[in-house]
Amino acid sequence: MGDPVVVAPINFRFECQLGCVNCCARPGDVFLTEEDRGRIASHLDLTAAQFTERYCAPEDARGLRLSNPGKTTCHFLGPSGCRIHDVKPLQCRTFPFWPETVSTRKAWKGLSGYCPGVGVGQILPIEAVRAEAQRCADAFPEPG
Q1: Does 34 lie in the same domain as 9?
Q2: Range of the domain at 111
Q3: Alpha helices, DSSP H, located in 7-104
Q4: Domains: count for the chain
Q5: Which residue spans within the chain are E strands per DSSP?
Q6: Are 32 and 65 in contact (CB under 8 A)?
Q7: Which pLDDT belongs to residue 66?
């Protein structure tokens, strides 16, 4: 486990909105853990090597990540949403509770510009928010 994640002292409300795929359509890298690779490959009836060859960018110092398919921001984003939703990567599962989005009020509020679920629903326990952000931080440490 890495350094503890800093979480802003605010009331976090979030409820994913049915049919919304805004987070999936954003530009940026989707990093994968080894567990993600194995789970998704198995779901797609591929070996880890086949999955990597078809869907991942060449590994470098930044780590294992999905390649950019060009026409969309994600290989697995279809007209009906995520085609691998049940086995989606940790990075996707922990959204919007990433260390960089929960560290300040400004960062959290900034998500509402594209994520209609921010500010909706019950106030979430700060411990739950911290745990999700810590899962992400531990899985994807900043390169040093």
Answers
A1: no
A2: 1-23+95-144
A3: 34-43, 48-55, 90-94, 99-102
A4: 2
A5: 13-14, 77-78, 81-82, 118-123
A6: yes
A7: 95
* Whether residue 75 sits in one domain with residue 45: yes
CA distances from 141 to 13, 32, 101, 137 (A): 26, 12, 15, 6
pLDDT tens, 59-93?
A: 888 889 999 887 678 999 988 899 999 999 999 99
Q: 90 in a domain, yes or no?
A: no
Pair of tokens at residue 89: 């990567």
CA distance 127 to 136: 14
Does one domain contain both 102 and 138? yes
Contact in structure between 77 and 26 (CB atoms under 8 Å): no
Contact criterion met (CB below 8 Å) for 133 and 98: yes
